[in-house]
């Protein structure tokens, strides 16, 4: 079947058909020829064996797998068929099951599907193929995972990247930049009363295996890994803060609410207290790096700073690192790669990661506001500089665009919060071809992360504050000022679209500001943030 209006049915084979069961339609032609037809098809008809006692066959499964491989939607004629792992996989999200007596209605049933339904089913089918059936290794892992699930044994914990720390001397007391510290008359948070602490890990091991079976089997990345935490964990109701389950919550005003002063003294929100880790990528810009680290002094809710040292040359022996009152872990990388920014380092002990360039110039109040917003949108990228993908009508391709716009679809990870869960997916689950292109161009890792998160969530990122750029004045010229930088990013976007099979980025037309921003207040009230 080719499309909604064209149908291809062949009753004769150009060559000898493959051996099959007496009650089953034989596979016709060579695999390559069948795949070429399926590549131009929206649907692929899979006729179940005529024997009602036979619930599956090699021929039916072969047609099913070939359709999934190229993105066609399988239409299984015969509702007595049992598709592979039907007790775990929701095949209704990727295939259409039609009883044989309704064959005369098939054309009208297929025409009733909307474009969004077609996309969702093709995406899901491709996910099932790549995850469970594409290689002998994936099929073997699927068998093991199904057995493990049936006896309620959790998957093995996903690996973390061991941080090979570079020794360094901390001898310079960090000062305070008056421009960065100007947050009005408000404190930004209880620095003294919140010492560094890690996010709880592996709290839902058994739950993932028992209660979340269908979600883990039917959503990326599948059931093969156990994650220490995810951005999809359920949230307790507000009563939990006050009636028996209040461990770790920090309600504003003790639960009575409040404006600026009460707001700054507690994290509030819907989840318990937590901190974030700054991950800063750097390459042979020691002075710029030291200034950026020094600006982090006194930042509330900061757990530690992980500096990803991307240079093969170690830091200078006489380099004095600023003392910001928190650990600074300098990690030596195996090679110079922008993908190192998103490695799930074991030194990162929090769910929240603030990925930041060594020349990024952000005020403390901007960082704190971004953190608070991320806590309410944990499955999204939350950051500052927005960009968007545009369509080139003349060349019929995608473009990367950094112009000022009322729409955006990407937030640059040179200054953005994201969940550590996505670092695991980027490094170990995302197609290797994307990471290879990042290494080839030494570019586009931020675009790749935006593609990944939008593909997983089907949501756009969230931009906070009015910033469109974040570079520090007086810093050396960055790579992004080179014209070739943008040409490479155009190529990256179009290549990533080919890898995913569609454009996963989604547009958004709003940014986030604090609740009382530009609100006229009584004299005894203060704003959440003075400038945000």
UniProtKB/TrEMBL annotation:
It catalyses: 3-O-(beta-D-GlcA-(1->3)-beta-D-Gal-(1->3)-beta-D-Gal-(1->4)-beta-D-Xyl)-L-seryl-[protein] + UDP-N-acetyl-alpha-D-glucosamine = 3-O-(alpha-D-GlcNAc-(1->4)-beta-D-GlcA-(1->3)-beta-D-Gal-(1->3)-beta-D-Gal-(1->4)-beta-D-Xyl)-L-seryl-[protein] + UDP + H(+). Residues 276-517 form the Glycosyl transferase domain. Its EC number is 2.4.1.223. Pathway: Glycan metabolism; heparan sulfate biosynthesis. GO terms for molecular function: glucuronyl-galactosyl-proteoglycan 4-alpha-N-acetylglucosaminyltransferase activity; metal ion binding; protein-hormone receptor activity. It is a single-pass type II membrane protein. GO terms for cellular component: endoplasmic reticulum membrane; Golgi apparatus. SUPFAM superfamilies: Nucleotide-diphospho-sugar transferases. Its cofactor is Mn(2+). It is found in: Endoplasmic reticulum membrane; Golgi apparatus. Glycosyltransferase which regulates the biosynthesis of heparan sulfate (HS). Initiates HS synthesis by transferring the first N-acetyl-alpha-D-glucosamine (alpha-GlcNAc) residue (GlcNAcT-I activity) to the tetrasaccharide linker (GlcA-Gal-Gal-Xyl-)Ser core linker. May also transfer alpha-GlcNAc residues during HS elongation (GlcNAcT-II activity). Lacks glucuronyl transferase II (GlcAT-II) activity. Important for both skeletal development and hematopoiesis, through the formation of HS proteoglycans (HSPGs). Receptor for REG3A, REG3B and REG3G, induces the activation of downstream signaling pathways such as PI3K-AKT or RAS-RAF-MEK-ERK signaling pathway. Required for the function of REG3A in regulating keratinocyte proliferation and differentiation. Required for the inhibition of skin inflammation mediated by REG3A through the activation of PI3K-AKT-STAT3 pathway. Required for the function of REG3A and REG3G in glucose tolerance in pancreas. This is Exostosin-like 3. It comes from Pygocentrus nattereri (Red-bellied piranha). The gene is EXTL3.
């Amino acid at each position: 079947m080719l499309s909604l209006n064209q149908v291809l049915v062949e009753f004769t084979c150009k060559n000898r058909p493959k051996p099959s069961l007496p009650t089953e339609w034989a596979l016709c032609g060579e695999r390559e020829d069948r795949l070429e037809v399926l590549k131009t098809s929206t649907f692929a008809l899979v006729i179940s064996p005529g024997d009602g006692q036979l619930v599956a066959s090699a021929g039916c499964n072969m047609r099913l797998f070939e359709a999934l491989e190229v993105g066609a939607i399988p239409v299984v004629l015969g509702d007595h068929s049992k598709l592979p792992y039907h007790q775990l996989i929701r095949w209704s999200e990727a295939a259409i099951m039609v009883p044989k007596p309704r064959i005369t209605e098939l054309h009208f049933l297929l025409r009733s599907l909307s474009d969004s339904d077609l996309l969702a089913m093709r995406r899901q089918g491709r996910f099932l193929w790549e995850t469970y059936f594409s290689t002998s290794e994936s099929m073997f892992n699927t068998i093991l995972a199904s057995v493990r699930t049936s006896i309620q044994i959790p998957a093995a914990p996903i690996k973390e990247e061991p941080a090979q720390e570079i020794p360094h001397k901390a001898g310079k007391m960090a000062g305070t930049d008056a421009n960065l510290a100007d947050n009005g008359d408000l404190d930004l948070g209880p620095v003294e009363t919140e010492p560094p602490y890690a996010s709880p890990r592996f709290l839902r091991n058994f739950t993932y295996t028992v209660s979340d079976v269908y979600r883990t089997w039917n959503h990326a990345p599948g059931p093969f890994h156990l994650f220490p935490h995810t951005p999809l964990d359920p949230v307790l109701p507000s009563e939990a803060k006050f009636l028996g389950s209040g461990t770790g919550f920090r309600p504003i005003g003790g639960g009575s609410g409040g404006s600026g002063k009460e707001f700054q003294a507690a994290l509030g929100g819907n989840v318990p207290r937590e901190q974030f880790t700054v991950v800063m990528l750097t390459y042979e810009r020691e002075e710029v790096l030291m200034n950026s680290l020094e600006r982090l002094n006194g930042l509330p809710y900061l757990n530690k700073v992980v500096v990803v040292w991307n240079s093969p040359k170690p830091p200078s022996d006489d380099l004095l690192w600023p003392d910001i009152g928190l650990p600074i872990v300098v990690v030596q990388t195996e090679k110079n790669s922008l993908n190192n920014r998103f490695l799930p380092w074991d030194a990162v002990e929090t769910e929240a990661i603030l990925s930041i360039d060594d020349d990024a110039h952000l005020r403390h109040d901007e960082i704190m506001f971004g953190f608070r917003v991320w806590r309410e949108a944990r499955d999204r990228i939350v950051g500052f500089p927005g960009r968007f993908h545009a369509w080139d009508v003349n060349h019929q391709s995608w473009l990367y665009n950094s112009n000022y716009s009322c729409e955006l679809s990407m937030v640059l990870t040179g200054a953005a919060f994201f969940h550590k869960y996505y670092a695991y997916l980027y490094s170990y689950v995302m197609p290797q071809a994307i990471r290879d292109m990042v290494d080839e161009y030494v570019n586009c890792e931020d675009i790749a992360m935006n593609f990944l998160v939008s593909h997983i969530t089907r949501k756009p990122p969230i931009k906070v504050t009015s910033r469109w750029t974040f570079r520090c004045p007086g810093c050396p010229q960055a790579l992004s000022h080179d014209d070739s930088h943008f040409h490479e990013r155009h190529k990256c976007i179009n290549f990533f679209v080919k890898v995913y099979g569609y454009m996963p980025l989604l547009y958004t037309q709003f940014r986030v500001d604090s609740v009382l921003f530009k609100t006229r207040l009584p004299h005894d009230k203060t704003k959440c943030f003075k400038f945000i």
